[in-house]
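#struct-help
A.M.: can someone run this one for me? Single chain, 145 residues.
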Amino acid sequence: MAMEDGSFDQLERRWMANYEELRSFRATKGKLPLEAGVGSEATLGGWLRNQRRRHKRGRMPAWQADLLQRIPGFVWEPAVGAWWVKLELLRAFLEREGRVPRYRSSDAGERELAAWVHKQRHNFRHGRLRPERAAALRRLPFKIV
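D.P.: on it. Structure tokens below:
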């Protein structure tokens, strides 16, 4: 981290500048940057993906990991978190509508949820659905898997 005199080396200064840009983006936009974003958002989203990769490979200093974890909404594996968010959306839909979502709905959100359910069923049939996810889907009020 910091050198004995309290200063940062050039790589650490660059990392801190990116981190501060990330904090600022989150504070002003209310979300984390996406690689699929435009311009500086895409660049910052790529930097964030690289940080997650470094962490996963054990190549990130603890102080950097600690700082990233302080950012509201930050997760190390966003795809894992997104799956559970979809599950909660499905649960709410089932409770509200009393039926499974339909592909032919005029509502885009319902169609997207129907596609997600289809993908989960497909993954289940082909042995590619994690056991904890299958168990969570089985606890829903409708037979999904």
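A.M.: thanks! The chain has two domains: 10-69, 78-138.
D.P.: also worth noting: Residues 10-29 form the longest helix (20 residues).
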